[in-house]
Amino acid sequence: MPDEILTIETEKLYDLSEQYMAVMCGFDRDTKGAKKIRDNAMKVRKKIFDGTKMDFLLRPFTKECVKEDHFLLENYKIECNILSKVDLESVLGGYVFMFHAPMPDLSSYPVSEMYLADSWQTSFVDAGRDVLRELLLKKAKKEYKKELYITDTLAPGMFGIASSKVRTFFRFMDHKKIDLELLESGMMNPVKSFVGIFLLLDQEMVLSSMNCSECLSGHKNCEYCKNYAARWVG
User: Fold this and answer.
1) How does pLDDT run across 109-154, given as a tens digit for each residue?
2) Alpha carbon separation from 21 to 8, 13, 32, 107, 123 (Å, rounded)
3) Residues 49/102, Cβ–Cβ less than 8 Å
4) DSSP string computed for 200-222
5) Of 27, 85, 110, 133, which has the most beta carbons under 10 Å away?
6) Which secondary-structure segment (H or E) carries 61?
7) DSSP 3-state of 197
8) For residue 225, what pLDDT is reported?
9) Which helix (H) or strand (E) holds 96?
């Protein structure tokens, strides 16, 4: 299937991104200092990000692309150990996606504003992923005309996909359409970028867990928490 581009105005992400931003920058507390940080953050958001947009590159795929331990996308294999815990009969298909936060030139801004702008970009990535998930679920429900579910994000370094698999996504997605590239180092450029997969199911499945020992992805293979898991879980 060909890639699609979904454009979302950054302003539509403001409420959710502010929630992420509040936790990241510490202005979710009821103190005078926290209020000052929030006021400064809002000024930076308005000054730098008002009127910006985010493009999401999407590639729908069918249930035939989902195997017991991997995805087979355009003949490229992406191993994902969480699939062994998924009822494949419930899988209807899914979406591969990639996007990045707005990337204004921040070089002329004061250091304090650069820091807040950088934090906003991280928050936009988190909020963008959440909003995209809900939009795709809404679209799928309309198409299938029944109650459906969409998983949390399956992505390199998260839920059983090795971080090295980022390269594979770039082999079959037309990433240049959204000005996204993969550097020789394996890092994405712009740096505030994200690639992942959503699975569409006809029965609910919750992947996330607050307890590493209950993590469905297998904590020993998690690129982000393996050090924590090795120490506290074994």
Assistant:
1) 999 999 999 999 999 999 999 999 999 999 999 999 999 999 989 9
2) 19, 12, 17, 21, 6
3) yes
4) EESS------SSGGG-TT-GGG-
5) 27
6) strand 53-62
7) strand
8) 52
9) strand 91-100
